[in-house]
Each structure stands twice: as C-alpha cells, then as structure tokens.
Design goal:
Blueprint (H helix, E strand, L loop, with lengths): L9 H4 L2 E4 L15 H6 L1 H7 L3 E4 L3 E2 L11 E5 L6 H13 L3 E6 L9 H8 L11 E2 L22 E4 L4 E4 L14 H16 L4 E4 L28 E2 L2 E2 L7 H15 L7 E4 L5 H8 L13 E2 L11 H14 L7 E3 L8 H4 L4 H13 L3 E5 L19 H5 L5 H8 L45 H5 L5 H14 L1 H5 L1 E4 L2 H4 L3 E8 L2 E8 L5 E3 L6 E6 L7 E2 L2 E4 L4 E6 L2
Parallel strand pairs: 1-2, 1-15, 2-5, 5-9, 9-12, 12-13, 14-15
Antiparallel strand pairs: 3-4, 6-8, 7-8, 10-11, 16-17, 17-18, 18-23, 19-22, 20-23, 21-22
The chain binds alpha-D-glucopyranose (GLC).
The site of alpha-D-glucopyranose has 9 residues, from loops.
C-alpha cells in the first residue's frame, strides 16, 4: 500500500464552490443577483466549510450569454456592482481565509467589445487582425471560407456585409474568436490576467481553453459519423474537429499561462481549464512533470467523465480508478457533477436526497479537488422551463425544434437544451422568492417550486438534511490530511461485493476508509478491524459499526478511521 506524505500546495487540498452571480442573491431589488448580495452570504459559505469560491463572469457584458460575452475585461457589469464592490469581495473572502477564483473567457469577446467594433469597421482597421477574418470561397465569396462547424452546431463563420469577409466564432455568432497568433492580443490578455492577479485573485477558471488556436492553413475538418458531442471524442455534428479543437498550439499556450501564474507566489495561484475531452487529452493540458508536486501546464482540468456516471459499483469503481490512476501525483483529479451548463446531478439521481448524500460522500472523500455548484448542497433541482421563452441563448437557438425531437433528445434525462433550468435563483428560504430577492420583485428566472422543501433555512435546522451532510463532509475533509492529501487505494473487498464501493485514503500514519453502499439493500460486512472508529455517516446519529461488524442501510455512506 502506498501512503502519501507529501506536503501539497493549498489548491490541491481545497474545495471549490461555484457561484453563478446572476442567481445567488439580489441586494439591489432588480431581480438579478449581485456582488453585494454575494458578500452578504459569505458567512454562510464560510460556515458551510467552503474554502475557495469561483465566480462565473461578472465583467462588463451585453449579457447575451450572461457574462460569457465580455465587453471589458477590467470592469464590472453595473447590474452586478462596481469595482469597489469587487475589491471588497476579494478582501472579505481573504479576511475569512478563503480563496477567490475568477472566470476568464480568453477565447472570444462579445461582438459589442470595442475591439471587435473597431476590427469590424474596416479591412484596414489596426484591430482587424485581433479577430479571425477570412475571404469566403470563390467565385463570389458568399460561402464560408471552409467547413468548420462551431461547438454548438452550424457553421462557425459569419458574414460581415460591410467589409465582405467572414469572421470565426467557436461558440455563438455574437462571440467572435480572438486571434492569438497576433502578439498584441496575447500581450493584452496576459496583462489582463496580471491586472486581476495584482488585485489578489487566487486563481482562474479558463472558459473553453481547448479552442484558443485553429489550423493556420484553414484546412477543412474531416467528416465523422458522430452527431452528438461526447467527452471522449473530439467529433460532433458530423465533423472530426482536428483543426478547431485541441490544436497542438493550445498545449504550448497553457504552458505560457502557467509561467505567468508562476510569477506570483504567497499564495501560489492556480488555473482550472474547462475542457470536454478524454483523460489522456486532459493530462496533456496539465503538462509535463516538473517536480514531485508540480507539472508545467494547467494546474487542474475539469474531468467531465463524472457528469453522467451511473450510481452503481462497477461504474464508480471504474471512474475512481480512471481518475486516480491516470492522475497520480503530481497530477490532481477534479470531481465535478454539476455546473451552469449541465443538468443538475440530483436530477440524474431521481431527485433522491439519500442518493445525493452518497454522491457527495464520494465527491468529498475521493482523491482530487471537488467543485460544488451553488444549490447542490441543498439538493436544488433543475426547474423545467419552456424552451420557447428561454433566456439562455443555446435554449433560444434550439427553440424551433419540433416537440417530438425535443422529447427524444431529452428522453434520457441527461440532456437539457435550456441552460436556464439549472440557473434558477438560489433557495435561501420558503418565502415566495426563496429569499433570493424581495417578494414584490420579479426574479430574472422563476424560482423553482421545490424551494418550499429544499432551502437553506429549513435544512439548517434539520440535522439529517443534505445541507448538514455537506457541512460535516466539508469539515471532515478540511481536518483530515488523509482525505485532502492522501493517496487512494481501492479496497479489495469492493471487487467482491456487488453493491459496496470501498477505498482507503492514506497519509503519513493516518488511515481512513470510506464505505458506500450503492444499493437498495442492507449490507453487512463482518470481520472489520476492531480499532475502526466512525468519523462520518450520511445518516445522522447512526451506529453502523458494532464491534467488528459494519451494517449499512440502503445508500448509506460512512467514513472510518483506524488508529495506528
Ligand atoms: C463555456 C461556458 C458556457 C458559455 C460558453 C461560451 O462552455 O461554461 O456557459 O456559454 O463557454 O463562453
């Protein structure tokens, strides 16, 4: 058994909570969440045991993609607050010994960014080359320069009548891609990163960082049979996207970013990349080994293989092994089950709180950095909202789809075409607007009716709530070196039991063992070692351990510790 005794940097041990600012807490009375609102809830997050907070973008933006379309990277959108509010947010988080992560959209800007307006104004504009402009195909140039499809379907090329050229947009048409082959662009964006690092930001989440560069010769992407995107293959919409996604130059680019972040220390800063890709590709983005605890690429990459993983022993065993074995130190896995683009995990677990507790136990005790999406800790559900009135630009893009196609697509329950569904206001209490905004105000998205039973206030008082389960797990993780820093060993028993997943976490002299009963039946394990001590159970006040026998209720998870 290998035990780890490494002294890991803070960002490998931390737990991250994602806030979607528009939906967290409104303080100004306009039905839109804002920075002062977030500040008023920092005590809640600290008390929950969160160590790092990641904010989806609140920079100036026309909000066509709710902040992922930036029009000024160094100022704050007025509906969220001011630069003074932002500086106070950073200060107040640091004063609580917590860390701040901002969301950087490097790949593209808004089409309303002054750079793009300037670039679009004429072929001779000094900023023309800041974006990717090309002539269309001959004879009249009215056909896109090549066959490249965007990430969201359809050609990624958009025609500009006035200058009779096409610009490239990897995402939606109003999000033109920046041209990083132009060194002025790179310099400007690197300066922007410094601007925020100098203000004390501790890390960045890098939006679609695997799409920064495209083929310099603009060659067509080859045909592929795949229509739906998948994490394992870089193919979708009948195209193998070798020239537009995961271009070799991206891997060098993240190393340059790493060097920039390495200029800062005390604390060390980190970046986590948003990349839908196979484990091998993710590892390549994390770079080569530099020392026992560091690589020279991204510090972390989201591992999205977990999004749709089934809650059963074979699937989870495979996943834990996949993450742990491929991301041994100095690589660090990540555990993410929900975010602002995905259906919430709990919907995939049949809305079941008991299963959500088990899922959380895995997320917070396996080796790697957990990312918790706001509301996940109280079991907030996706709220099915009509596609016809979607605010989400992806939802709107597909709102014309016939009902039958929509129901076929969403049949499995794991595809949600309207991202509004997972972005509804945070549920603080039972009041009509769930305490997100005052009752006489219309919230930007409707509050989910499940707030009657799933909200912070009610769950705080219930020792057996999901919220209190998260609270206990977060504390346990923070105070237990084997959990935040130890190596992981799958117990051999897991291979013998159909319904139990068990692994140990080892650090110096500490041994912690996690048992997850992933079934509807009771489970009895005899001949446990006598010195096992119960550290945590998903069921409050349970006594699963009697002498040398462990009895687990259906879907119960426990954490034990062995004295040396
Ligand atoms: C990322 C973001 C998503 C956004 C897109 C374009 O996937 O997570 O919300 O719409 O990039 O920036």
């Amino acid at each position: 058994m290998s035990s780890s005794s490494l002294n890991l940097p803070w960002w490998k041990k931390t737990t991250v909570y994602q806030i979607y600012p528009r939906s967290f807490k409104d303080s100004s009375g306009d039905g839109i969440g804002d920075i002062p609102g977030i500040i008023s809830k920092l005590d809640y997050l600290q008390d929950l045991g969160i160590e790092t907070i990641w904010f989806s973008p609140f920079f100036s933006s026309p909000q066509a993609d709710f902040g992922y379309d930036v029009s000024d990277y160094r100022s704050i959108a007025p509906e969220y607050g001011s630069m003074t509010d932002c500086e106070k947010l950073i200060r107040d988080i640091h004063n609580r010994d917590m860390y701040v992560v901002f969301d950087l959209v490097l790949n593209h800007t808004s089409d309303q960014h002054p750079w793009f307006l300037e670039s679009q104004s004429s072929r001779d504009s000094p900023k023309r080359d800041w974006y990717i402009w090309r002539d269309g195909r001959k004879p009249h140039g009215k056909k896109p320069p090549n066959n490249w499809k965007s990430m969201v379907g359809g050609s990624g090329w958009h025609y500009d009548e006035a200058t009779e050229q096409w610009y490239w947009a990897q995402f939606l048409p109003f999000q033109p891609d920046l041209n990083y082959r132009n060194l002025d662009v790179k310099r400007e964006m690197f300066d922007t990163i410094r601007f925020w690092l100098d203000k004390g930001v501790d890390g960045f989440r890098l939006d679609i960082i695997n799409t920064i560069f495209e083929d310099e010769q603009f060659r067509d992407n080859p045909f592929a049979w795949n229509f739906f995107p998948s994490v394992e293959e870089n193919k979708s919409f009948f195209q193998n996207k070798i020239h537009t996604i995961n271009h070799p130059d991206n891997f060098l680019f993240v190393k340059e970013l790493r060097s920039l972040l390495d200029e800062y220390s005390n604390p060390e800063r980190f970046m986590v990349g948003e990349i839908h890709a196979s484990i091998d590709t993710l590892k390549r983005y994390c770079g080569e080994v530099r020392s026992k605890t560091t690589t020279d690429g991204l510090h972390l990459a989201f591992m999205f293989q977990s999004l749709d993983v089934k809650l059963d022993v074979p699937s989870l065993l495979e996943l834990v092994n996949l993450y742990d074995q491929n991301f041994q130190e100095p690589y660090t896995p990540t555990w993410v089950f929900s975010n602002h683009d995905q259906m919430r995990r709990i919907n995939k677990l049949g809305s079941d709180i008991t299963k959500a507790k088990l899922n959380a136990t895995l997320q917070l005790t396996a080796r790697g950095v957990p990312f918790i999406y706001y509301g996940e800790e109280i079991g907030m559900l996706n709220h099915k909202l009509p596609l016809k009135t979607a605010k989400d630009p992806i939802g709107r893009k597909y709102s014309w789809l016939p009902k039958i196609v929509i129901s076929l697509l969403t049949r499995t329950g794991s595809i949600s075409l309207n991202r509004d569904d997972c972005r509804t206001p945070m549920q603080w209490d039972q009041s009509p607007n769930a305490g997100f905004c005052s009752e006489d105000v219309e919230s930007w998205l409707p509050v989910s009716p499940d707030h009657q039973s799933r909200n912070v206030t009610s769950e705080e008082d219930d020792p057996d709530s999901l919220l209190n389960c998260y609270r206990s797990l977060l504390r346990l993780r923070k105070n237990t070196p084997a959990i935040h820093s130890g190596s992981l060993v799958i117990s051999s028993l897991s291979h013998n039991f159909e319904s139990v997943l068990s692994y140990q976490r080892l650090h110096d002299n500490q041994t912690v063992e996690v048992w997850l009963n992933i079934s509807e039946k009771h489970c009895r394990i005899d001949e446990m070692e006598q010195d096992a001590k119960l550290l945590f159970s998903t069921i409050h006040n349970a006594t699963p351990l009697r002498e040398s026998v462990l009895v687990l209720e259906p879907y119960q998870g426990v954490v034990l510790e062995y004295s040396q």
